[in-house]
Specification:
The complex is a heterotetramer, with two copies of chain A (about 160 residues) and two copies of chain B (about 160 residues). Chain A is about 35% helix and about 25% strand. Chain A contains three helices and six strands; from the N terminus they run αββαβαβββ. In chain A, the strands form three sheets. In chain A, strands 1-2 form a two-stranded antiparallel sheet. The termini of chain A are far apart. The model of chain A has no long low-confidence stretch (mean pLDDT about 95). Chain B is an alpha+beta fold and about 160 residues long. Chain B has three helices and eight strands. In chain B, strands 2-1-4-5-6-7 form a six-stranded antiparallel beta sheet, covered by helices on one side. In chain B, a hairpin with a 4-residue loop joins strand 5 and strand 6. The radius of gyration of chain B is 16 Å and the shape is globular. Classes of the chains: A alpha+beta (about 160), B alpha+beta (about 160). Chains in contact: A-B, A-C, A-D, B-D, C-D. Chains A and B meet through helix 1, strand 2, helix 2, strand 3 and strand 4 of A and strand 3, helix 1, strand 8 and helix 3 of B. Bound molecules: adenosine-5'-triphosphate (ATP) (2 copies) and magnesium ion (2 copies). One adenosine-5'-triphosphate sits at the interface of chains B and D.
């Protein structure tokens, strides 16, 4: 129904604003109806303002800014309807070191209630690990798995 | 609840049975390109009932069954078990598929249908994977999806 | 021949004139997310005559002109100069655009049209950018494009 | 004309086979007509066999394998009709250390005849640099550029 959608939108928007602050350390962001007069059919738009920059078209964001904004959007819906598990496959690939750190702050917060499965090639992302698994193909075409002690995490080249 | 263990046998690059025990918190998976990291995540997604083969990066149903390498012949079937721990009580989901495409499901070792799997997942709080799973390479595209697509994402979360 | 220098003024995140001298061999560009690395490449692509604004991650023509920040007002125009060294002889390409969208071109400081720019580039051995430029985020998609698209790529290279 | 297309296809295929060997250190690859009986209209398909693995559907390749295969394809066309300049924007993002090294071997070979502009966040890629430029936003929204001495390349966190 209409009012249910609006309440959901509002809650998700609140999550989005908060998560955006954590990930971008400033700026502002908002999820809102494109056409407030037509609640039943209106699309939803996302407006972001990066710290120190002007409000702009999402297309002009950089690769890393798009990735981080996408994460904020997904997590804002995730927190509205939390699942016990969250799976991220190399979401850190476009991010620089500083933004990986910001993402790790958020994941550290969320991991008390959510189990994460995270695939990465970036040593910086390993810092958030509680367990680490290595996957390898000793025999070509056949995957095998081995456990890595978390204390080794800074030695591991990925 | 959390995912305690995943058992993979005959699925993609896992010709022999492999068990992976996960912990609460952040489970990191690392390894070289092509070693099988995303295949582990595919096994999880397939195990919770994914029906679209393209979501598992396949073309035809049998693409998820081990297709052989220099030494090993293709296998006839793929199977995945997911063991969730729900406040101390174990929930076991099992899926097996043969080359002709039919899947066999089990919930706690009793024969079941896909609908029973979905119901168990619902009880665990696991819904549509678009809210908890970010596929490799997709992270930059989410924020720039269309206005109506964004609305549908929020509507379905409601 | 090689690109000796690029001059950017008023294009995207470059409100004041910036000169970048390149060398033969490998020129690496590093920096934080959103700092302007891809914008430098966009300036190059625009300077060689790109007409599709979406290929420059813009929506409307004026998206490539500096849109202002806290301290600075939006500018009225964007200009890029490309200086190529062709066996010791210099070839200067210049492009300027105002907010209404019209572009002014120059070749070696003489007024020119886009067709003259393309001709100079042809003499330098610079053709369609799809053979020498891989945009951010596109690297995984090229190999999985359709069979006819691949054929067209090869046909046009012939 | 028909014969021109076939000669081009054959030459590009030869490049592709050679480059594939350099990037994957083995395996085999081929670009061929989908339907040999209809030269004028047939699509073009790419078949790859990774070292030690069976021939397979391109969709089943991993993120890194797709990226490296895409690079081989682009470079095979590039070498057929070389341009004085080649621009790569974070193409190393999905690659592990070993594959970045293989890519750098290829770029080192090509950079005697081709000028490269390469954007990266990966310190490993810096090893191929002849010059390095840093881009930064000291004033938010305004890009500025500074030159980095190549001898500093191993100290630079990107
Ligand atoms: N049905 C199958 N049978 C055998 N092997 C398969 C099958 N399906 C996929 N594979 C293998 O799995 C490999 C891809 O694995 P995966 O996508 O998990 O790699 P990854 O570790 O995620 O790598 P990256 O870091 O590049 O993303 C392919 O190279 C392919 O050989
Ligand atoms: N017309 C414009 N006026 C002012 N700033 C602009 C304009 N167009 C783009 N920008 C700015 O450029 C930034 C993006 O820069 P760019 O894409 O070059 O980043 P990048 O260094 O490539 O980052 P990444 O590593 O994340 O890919 C945006 O944040 C935006 O603020
Ligand atoms: Mg992967
Ligand atoms: Mg960029």
């Amino acid at each position: 129904s209409r009012s249910r959608f609006l309440t959901t939108l509002e809650k998700i928007n609140e999550n989005f604003k908060r998560i955006y602050q954590t990930l971008f350390k400033g700026g502002s962001a908002e999820i809102k109806l494109l056409d407030e007069t037509d609640i039943l059919n209106s699309g939803v738009e996302i407006k972001v303002k990066l710290p120190g920059k002007k409000l702009q078209n999402l297309q002009l964001l950089s690769g890393g800014e798009k990735a981080l904004s996408s994460l904020a959007f997904i997590f804002s819906m995730f927190l509205y309807k939390p699942s016990p598990i969250c799976v991220l496959d190399e979401v850190d690939a476009p991010l620089d070191e500083a933004n990986i750190e910001n993402l790790m702050v958020l994941i550290n917060e969320m991991k008390t209630n959510t189990q994460f499965l995270i695939v990465t090639h970036n040593p910086k992302t390993l810092e958030v690990a509680d367990t680490i698994y290595g996957v390898t193909m000793i025999e070509p075409g056949v995957s095998s798995i081995y456990s890595i002690d978390v204390s080794e995490k800074d030695k591991k080249i990925v | 609840p959390y995912l305690k263990k995943i058992d993979i046998f005959g699925f993609k690059s896992f010709p022999s049975r492999i068990e992976i025990f996960f912990k609460k918190g952040a489970n990191l998976i690392i390894g070289p390109n092509g070693s099988g990291k995303s295949n582990v995540l595919d096994a999880l997604i397939w195990g919770i009932g994914e029906t679209k083969i393209s979501s598992l990066r396949g073309g035809k149903t049998e693409d998820i069954i081990f297709s052989g390498n220099r030494k090993k012949k293709p296998l006839a079937a793929a199977e995945v078990s997911l063991i969730f721990d729900n406040e101390g009580e174990e929930v076991r989901l099992f899926r097996k598929a043969y080359r002709d495409g039919e899947s066999v499901f089990r919930v706690n070792s009793k024969r079941a249908r896909l609908k029973d799997i979905v119901e168990e997942l619902y009880k665990l709080g696991i819904g549509d994977r678009k809210y908890f799973f970010i596929e490799q390479g997709m992270i930059g595209n989410i924020i720039t999806m269309g206005h109506l697509e964004k609305r549908i994402l929020i509507e379905e979360a409601a």
